[in-house]
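Entry under discussion copied across for reference:
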Amino acid sequence: EVQLQASGGGLVQPGGSLRLSCAASGFKVSDHAITWFRQAPGKEREGASSIYSVHGGTNGRAIYADAVKDRFTIYREDATNTVYLQMNRLKPEDTAVYYCAAAQRDPPLVWRESQYDYWGQGTQVTVSS
């Protein structure tokens, strides 16, 4: 059975850090593009960061939305079949439910949700003092 399990969310003060995990079962994360999306209260879901598969010319390239660039780092751990999102210098505007999603083919338009085949259930991140 194909499954994505997102975890690691919580309450953190501004300037703090969290690490989100996206654990996959039923497929290899290295063979898929894995993307973290987030949805803030009252807003549409948006892409935050993506890591491409090891196949083709993309070879695991990481992509970041402007809002998280230089603060978030996405990386893959093949031994545990998990993709992580390390979030540093968190801001109140990072508050959202974070979802991970997997695409069997590296998506030409990385933030287009229709290109993703599997979704995790979401984990809440709250940045507040």
In short: Residues 50 and 110 are 7 Å apart (CA to CA). DSSP finds no helices and eleven strands in the chain. The mean pLDDT is 95. The longest strand covers residues 18-25.
